[in-house]
Amino acid sequence: MPAFEQLHREYAPAGLTVLGVNIQENEQTIQRYGQKLGLTFPLIPDLDRTIARAYGAIAVPSTFLIGRDGRAVALAVGSRRWDSPPARALIEALLAEPVTRRGSR
Known about the structure:
The protein is α+β, with helices and mostly antiparallel strands. It has one domain: Glutaredoxin (3-Layer(aba) Sandwich), CATH 3.40.30. 37% of the residues lie in helices and 16% in strands. Strands 1-2 form a two-stranded parallel ribbon. The radius of gyration is 14 Å and the shape is globular.
């Protein structure tokens, strides 16, 4: 989570949105956790697993990178080094894509 917070702080001005989705805990517990870690990106509960099902999440943790056009472009199951040079290169490449609007293709 600290790596996601760093990415959020660094790349939010360029358009990166980080969302933490939790399928196990209620909102109060999630917010307490976020405050304890100093997280400033949104943390949301998904107790009915609507979001998890929509993206086909099969394990915890799962991380999805969503392009500017709304397509899922990468999936990582398990923990990853999101502060690594390859991960940053992928994020920067996605942020360099032009902004598209739904229905404009």
